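Example (one chain per record):
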Amino acid sequence: MKLDGCSALVTGASAGIGREFARQLAGRMRSLILVARREQRLNVLSEELQQQYPNLTVHVRETDLADLAQLKELMSWLDYEKIDVDLLINNAGLGDLGPFATSDSIRNEQMIFVNMVALTSLTRHLLSQMIARKRGGILNVSSSAGFLPIPGFAVYAATKAYVTSFSEALRAELRGTGVSVCVLCPGPVHTEFQEGAKRPGGRVESGPEFIHVLVEQVVRDALAGLEADRPLVIPGIAMKLGMFLVRITPMPILRWASRFSAKP
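Predicted structure:
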């Protein structure tokens, strides 16, 4: 997919990877639709981008994707304004770090809705237009956590396994339509995500520093992968190697290894 001159919709655009997507795309896009819960942050980002790129059109939509009514309102607004979206970046995501038995049921529902339901619904809503134009791109932000069950991250890892599987299947279905699908599976990245996933009184566990990848590099790799029509992007040499080993390791061995990471 050629990104220049496109219109892109980015969810979770107020911080972290989503904000960086907006910044790196701004100089190449015709228009950006920035979606997130925190409108003030979106407005600050919009002003920043429009100052740098005066010809860029930026739409800001305050939307909580964990709320079905707000998700439907977003999709209705896109239809009413007749905004064509060439590139959909499903970046919004929620996490939760800790044992499932003590997890908050509402948080679990929100995580499942944002990570899976909202992503699927937005993709379905915009896909027909892309197929009709024989042009479009869908970039789903999954996680390396989706490659294996992770004790303490059970629901989050499961939702990301869905995102990766859904993206791969959709890519196969859309072959020859002119619509590209790429799934981004980053490992640890220094953003607000870990702090948001932490429970009250808990601590952030993000792994050794050498496996972290800068958010700028994560986004550069993702956009390059989409333009090259790659099915999957794992930023960082250490994570690429680690996830390769994980994916070829038999599940009985992974189960045995998980005993050492699981905490009572």
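Caption: The beta strands are 7-11, 31-36, 57-62, 87-90, 136-141, 179-184, 232-233.
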